[in-house]
């Protein structure tokens, strides 16, 4: 890699960069692309886009634009559109190229491939056929939102896009509402208000974070309860790309009978200390209190 720099009269530096990279080995390369700022792409991703035998993309226009920005020529290479509506038709052609010993770079519309895009089946079929599948890590809207949310990140659940129909969306909310983890979802800016309305029907005080236009000029992060954020969103919804995060649910209140029942299930196969720690975390009770109860139950059994 060679680079040089010159200084303009304004003090800004104009950089020139030349990157030399060898052709990648045969296989499928999953290329993470920027979710907003075009410079949020790795050098390795640029290398592979520059040297792969075939290019595939959820949106070929976006990939061409990204390559133009970074000065990567197409050089007559085939760019295959691969999206939800044509995946079954296009997948055999990509697999055939891999079978010929070619390298194929697949780029999502924005962010990390296989996260809420159709690349899953392509990667699965390529791996099952014995071809190498390589990830080129990079931008991810879900992880970027988690990083700035201020919510716990030690355990999180990505649940994709909510269903559009109100009834299905309520069922979808129930599927994760009691999970002890930070929940991450993508949502249409026009429907984010309806999503919060549905959540408020069940848990109005759930800590919620809305990230809008991450890494872009008008990036915005809204934090509060579901009710508080619902009041801030206009009737027509928001604008831009949206990620919604929900904090962990409030610990379930429990009487001694419920605690004993939970401990009883765990004490059969776990040490007292581990069983007590799990039940304490589940019900939001002090570990010392639950450990004492677990010891008492063990003595009763003996």
From TrEMBL:
Q: Where in the cell is it found?
A: Cytoplasm
Q: Which reaction does it catalyse?
A: cytidine(1402) in 16S rRNA + S-adenosyl-L-methionine = 2'-O-methylcytidine(1402) in 16S rRNA + S-adenosyl-L-homocysteine + H(+)
Q: Name one GO molecular function term.
A: rRNA (cytosine-2'-O-)-methyltransferase activity
- Major enzyme class: transferase
Q: Which GO terms describe its cellular component?
A: cytoplasm
Which InterPro entries does the entry link to? 4pyrrol_Mease (IPR000878), 4pyrrol_Methylase_sf (IPR035996), 4pyrrole_Mease_sub1 (IPR014777), 4pyrrole_Mease_sub2 (IPR014776), rRNA_ssu_MeTfrase_I (IPR008189), RsmI_HTH (IPR053910)
Write down the superkingdom of origin. Bacteria
| Assigned EC number | 2.1.1.198
Tell me which HAMAP family the record gives: 16SrRNA_methyltr_I
Describe the task this protein carries out. Answer: Catalyzes the 2'-O-methylation of the ribose of cytidine 1402 (C1402) in 16S rRNA.
- Return the protein name: Ribosomal RNA small subunit methyltransferase I
Question: What is the species listed in this Swiss-Prot or TrEMBL entry?
Answer: Paracoccus denitrificans (strain Pd 1222)
- The gene behind this protein is rsmI
